[in-house]
Specification:
Elements lengths: L15 H20 L4 H8 L21 H6 L13 E7 L7 E6 H17 L7 E4 L7 H13 L2 E4 L5 H11 L3 E4 L1 H10 L8 E5 L5 H11 L2 E8 L4 E6 L8 E3 L4 E6 L2 E6 L10 E6 L2 E2 L8 E2 L4 E2 L4 E3 L2 E3 L1 H11 L4 E6 L6 E7 L5 H12 L4 E5 L15 E4 L11
Parallel strand pairs: 3-4, 3-5, 5-6, 6-7, 18-21, 19-20
Antiparallel strand pairs: 1-2, 7-8, 8-9, 9-14, 10-11, 11-12, 12-15, 13-14, 16-17, 18-19
Bound molecules: 5'-O-[hydroxy(phenylacetyl)phosphoryl]adenosine (DLL).
5'-O-[hydroxy(phenylacetyl)phosphoryl]adenosine (DLL) binds next to helix 5, strand 7, strand 8 and strand 12.
């Protein structure tokens, strides 16, 4: 292991100053590791005059170069790897927008870090060695399934490695094995709720990987009779476990900032991996929009629920709209299964909002959307069950319509 110190799970009682010191020490080791390679990040560091880790102080991190998804694509697949090829033990990633994949090589050290932060996330949700974790995140290149899996094993809980899809079988195993913890995307939690007659075992759900609002949280909590917590992460940084709500975190997500140092730049989250060795990233621009908050009950700073992604922000006739704002309004009047269609067939963009409800909510919903967003959306109401559900992977709640057939029947 070249950068950072061996992981430890005890962070809760560390003093904030001790945490800053640990972060600085880890940042310096990480920079030394980057400089030992000849890749893009080393070159950019030298350009700003950094020749060794001790040249930098944590409070000056804002002056160091950033790195973006475009840089990852430009150096696809492993041009930013810092470890020797033989030290890589697995690869994860995302298939990405426009079919361009992002691949991340992990060392054994990185898998350790991941297990630790995920065990912490599960523990914060009240899971123990006695817990049974029903894990319906997809297993594979996607980090959701294996991330929860590693954390569950580290905690000593029993993990049911369901992966996504085959809802009937999932429901059967929930009824038979009586898990107390459910892990999946929030949209899939709702899908499960449609088929589960009664949930009398699951107490808490750890949901993430896609945007969801507090309104959606209430809906899930009500339908399943559980506490629903938000978990955030991205493959580039580690996968799930970068930040997670705990039972007492008051709607904010505790950031595992002993491993992932957070900043915001114009509202965008930026993370530096402090302990990873496979493909450490200095000041990675995530594209995700959230706010950072001071610690409470421990040394870790917290972040808000994601407001959206920079590239998901819709600009409709000059007005900026995040899909999550639309979700918040939709859930007041209709079922949580909806689709937003950004209609760009002509130069004046239009938003269609497709919901499941009864026809009489159409005008009220149009009004409420206008009130909240400042623009008039066209609302299409379908019968219950008519908006497609996502059984595997992340829900697609936003469709772009530039020409040809409508993305969903009934739109004109
Ligand atoms: O989605 C990792 C993950 C798995 C997180 C399971 C939570 C649970 P990627 O596939 O690389 O990794 O996608 C990362 O998904 O940049 C966000 O835009 C979005 N995202 C992840 N978690 C949340 C969340 C995983 N809780 C991208 N709320 C990120 C909203 C989220 N968006």
């Amino acid at each position: 292991m070249t950068a950072g110190a061996p992981p430890s799970t005890k962070i809760g009682d560390m003093a904030p100053e001790a945490l800053r010191e640990l972060q600085e020490q880890r940042l310096r080791a990480m920079i030394d590791l980057l400089l030992s390679t000849d890749n893009l990040q080393a070159r950019r560091l030298r350009e700003v005059g950094v020749t060794r880790g001790t040249d930098v102080r944590l409070d000056e991190i804002g002056g160091l170069p950033t790195i973006s998804k475009q840089d990852l694509w430009d150096h696809y697949p492993f041009g930013l790897r810092a470890a020797a090829e033989e030290d890589i033990v697995c690869v994860h990633g995302s298939s990405g927008t426009g079919g361009r994949p992002t691949l991340i090589p992990y060392t054994a050290n990185d898998v350790e870090v991941w297990s630790e932060v995920m065990a912490r996330a599960l523990e914060g949700a009240g899971a123990t060695r006695k817990s049974t974790v029903h894990n319906a995140y997809g297993y594979g290149l996607f980090t959701g399934g294996l991330g929860v899996h590693h954390g569950g094993l580290r905690l000593g809980a029993t993990v049911i490695p369901m992966s996504g899809g085959m809802t009937e079988r999932q429901v059967r195993l929930i009824e038979d094995l009586k898990p107390d913890v459910l892990c999946c995307t929030p949209s899939y939690a709702l899908r499960l709720a449609e088929d589960l007659d009664q949930n009398n075992s699951v107490k808490v759900g750890i949901f993430g990987a896609e945007p969801w609002t507090d309104e959606m949280r209430r809906e899930i909590e009500q339908r399943l009779g559980i506490r629903a917590l938000d978990i955030y992460g991205l493959s580039e940084i580690i996968g799930p476990g970068v930040a997670c709500e705990s039972l007492d975190s008051e709607g904010l997500l505790n950031i595992a900032e002993d491993h992932f140092y957070p900043e915001t730049l114009d509202g965008e989250l930026v993370f530096t991996t402090l302990t990873k060795t496979g493909m450490p990233l200095l000041r990675y621009r995530t594209g995700d929009v959230a706010t950072l908050h001071e610690p409470r009950n421990g040394p870790l700073r917290r972040m808000s629920k994601l407001k959206g992604r920079k590239d998901d922000m819709l600009v409709i006739r000059g007005v900026n709209v995040f899909p999550t704002e639309i979700e918040a309004v939709v859930l007041e009047l209709a079922s949580p299964h909806y689709l937003i269609v950004e209609d760009r067939r002509t130069t004046t963009a239009q938003l269609h909002v497709v919901v499941e409800s009864t026809e009489d909510v159409r005008s009220r919903l149009t009004e409420k959307l206008k009130e909240r967003l400042g623009i008039t959306c066209r609302v299409l109401v379908l019968e219950p069950g008519k908006v497609p559900r996502t059984e595997v992977g992340k829900a697609q709640r936003l469709a772009r319509w530039t020409q040809g057939q409508a993305p969903i029947n009934g739109l004109t």
